[in-house]
């Protein structure tokens, strides 16, 4: 009788292979985002030529309200879906989870759409986006509210379909859907705005068109997974997990969009409109950093939860925080130093040029936003997300209080620095809580060094006369200066030396 060979347990993957996989998914996820952000920036001069400052402000207000509505409608199930997708690998369980989330969000979004259509005139008056004399149908506040409501419905349901690609870690399929969406949206928006002169209504309708077409295609693709099945108990479990994260997302909305309303309310007359227009441009430009984190944020949860070994997971989380904040800090240095030239390139009118002054604070706020994306995953892994909304609410309250104080005195610069302070507090509080429920030995000394060096280089560049060669030199000096202060580990220095040209 021969003895059967024992099956050896699978060896854990190395840190390098894990980071390589995360980077590969992030890059693929980021393709669609890169194209989207590039086209959004490319179309800014087009929009400013065909849409007035007031109409652009109305679109910003509607998009801000839609952002918070999306969070409310998607509910806790949105935040719990990917986490609970990995709780059980049984096909029957996953099919039930997919169907429950799909029908819940379809029902909530359809109800919201109906209410918005019924009360569109009242919503338009409340938001102060109503019709202006001479604007015609395309300037009607009611038509803008109805179009935004349709966009809201489409976005909620489209996001759930693409969320499934994220859970399955099918980054290529996710990016294909995103690129198809962009490929339909951009030309239709240009036609509606430039050719047919539909103004703000054309922008909103153009944006919903591509998403709607791709959503319908995804419905056909997923038809076998979207049968009539609904598990109330599973939905309650998802909501218990996700509602604290939803509350945190609402507080984040205050951080990201609340300052637009406060600029409009705390300042007066044409000065308020000018500050709001300049600040909106600064936010659009600094959102180039958000591209980095959008791609990462899409790939990160499924990757982080898929690591079964706890020790391996903690080691990976530690290095991911350091490397992501390094990339964010280097990008913030470059964006801050090149801000005057970027603004002049995208906005030919001198009235927009002061926007460059707000970009550094917004860019550095994104560094801490990147950090809290990483540290928050620990609470999700431990399934203890109750404190998340507390931390984010504290950051939002600080942001709100600082806006009340700083905006009347400093205008858009006050709003930018209030955003930076809010993100710092959120990351600090999230980290403190996450370390209590799921301790990870993050490399805090290195994190402090990389942020401090980035801040010092930016401050030097801003104190000296504007010079494009100086901006290039200081940006390229960042990784070199980090080496001078001992930032790199021996293994990292060894890898870097391999990348450098050999010297005889």
Give the strand tally. 0
Using the alpha-carbon principal axes, give the shape: globular
| N- and C-termini, Cα separation | 64 Å
Helix count equals 17
User: Helix and strand succession?
Assistant: HHHHHHHHHHHHHHHHH
| Biggest sheet details | none
Rg over alpha carbons:
24 Å
Supply the helix-strand structural class.
Answer: mainly alpha
Which residues sit in consecutive blocks of at least 5 with pLDDT less than 50? 1-10, 133-138
Overall average residue pLDDT = 82
Name the beta content range: under 5%
How would you characterize this protein structure?
The protein has 504 residues and is mainly α. The protein is built from 17 helices and no strands. The protein folds into 2 domains: 14-41 and 248-485, no CATH class; 51-230, no CATH class. The chain has helices at residues 15-42, 44-50, 53-85, 91-118, 120-127, 141-167, 171-195, 199-221, 232-266, 269-306, 310-346, 359-381, 388-410, 412-437, 444-463, 468-484, 490-499.
Topology, pairings included?
Layout: H1 15-42, H2 44-50, H3 53-85, H4 91-118, H5 120-127, H6 141-167, H7 171-195, H8 199-221, H9 232-266, H10 269-306, H11 310-346, H12 359-381, H13 388-410, H14 412-437, H15 444-463, H16 468-484, H17 490-499
Report a brief summary of the structure.
This protein has 504 residues and is mostly helical. The chain contains 17 helices and no strands.
Q: What brief labels describe this structure?
A:
504 residues, mainly alpha, 2 domains, 17 helices
């Amino acid at each position: 009788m021969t003895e059967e060979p024992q099956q050896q347990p699978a060896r854990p993957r190395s840190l390098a292979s894990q980071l390589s996989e995360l980077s590969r998914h992030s890059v693929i996820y980021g393709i669609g985002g890169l194209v989207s952000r590039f086209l959004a920036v490319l179309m800014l001069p087009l929009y400013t030529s065909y849409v007035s400052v007031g109409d652009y402000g109305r679109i910003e207000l509607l998009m801000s309200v839609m952002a918070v509505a999306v969070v409310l409608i998607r509910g806790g199930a949105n935040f719990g879906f990917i986490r609970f997708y990995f709780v059980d690998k049984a096909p029957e369980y996953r099919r039930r989870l997919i169907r429950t989330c799909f029908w819940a969000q379809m029902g909530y979004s359809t109800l919201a759409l109906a209410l918005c259509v019924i009360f569109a005139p009242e919503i338009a008056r409340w938001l102060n986006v109503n019709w202006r004399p001479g604007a015609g149908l395309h300037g009607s506040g009611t038509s803008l509210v109805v179009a935004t409501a349709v966009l809201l419905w489409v976005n909620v349901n489209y996001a759930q379909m693409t969320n499934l690609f994220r859970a399955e870690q099918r980054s290529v399929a996710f990016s294909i859907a995103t690129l198809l969406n962009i490929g339909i949206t951009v030309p239709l928006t240009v036609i509606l705005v430039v050719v047919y002169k539909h103004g703000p209504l054309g922008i909103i309708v153009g944006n919903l068109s591509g998403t709607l077409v791709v959503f319908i295609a995804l419905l056909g693709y997923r038809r076998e997974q979207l049968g009539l099945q609904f598990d109330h108990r599973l939905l309650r479990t998802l909501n218990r997990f996700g509602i604290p994260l939803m509350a945190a997302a609402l507080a984040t909305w205050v951080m990201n969009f609340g300052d637009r309303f406060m600029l409009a309310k705390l300042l007066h007359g044409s000065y308020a409109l000018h500050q709001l227009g300049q600040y909106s441009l600064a936010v659009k430009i600094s959102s180039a950093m958000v591209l980095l984190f959008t791609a990462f944020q899409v790939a990160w949860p499924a990757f982080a939860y898929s690591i079964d070994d706890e020790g391996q997971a903690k080691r990976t989380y530690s290095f991911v925080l350091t490397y992501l904040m390094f990339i964010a800090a280097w990008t913030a240095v470059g964006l801050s130093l090149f801000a005057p030239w970027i603004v002049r390139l995208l906005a030919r009118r001198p009235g927009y040029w002061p926007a460059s002054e707000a970009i550094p604070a917004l860019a550095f706020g994104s560094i801490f936003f990147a950090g809290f994306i990483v540290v928050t995953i620990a609470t999700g892994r431990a399934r203890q997300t109750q404190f998340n909304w507390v931390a984010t609410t504290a950051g939002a309250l600080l942001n709100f209080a600082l806006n009340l104080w700083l905006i009347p005195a400093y205008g858009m610069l006050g709003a930018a620095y209030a955003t930076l302070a809010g993100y710092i507090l959120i990351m600090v509080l999230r980290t403190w809580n996450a370390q209590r429920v799921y301790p990870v030995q993050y490399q805090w000394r290195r994190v402090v060094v990389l942020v401090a060096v980035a801040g010092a280089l930016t401050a030097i560049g801003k104190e000296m006369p504007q010079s494009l060669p100086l901006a290039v030199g200081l940006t390229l000096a960042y990784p070199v200066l980090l080496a001078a202060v001992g930032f790199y580990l021996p293994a990292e220095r060894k890898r870097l030396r391999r990348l450098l040209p050999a010297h005889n």
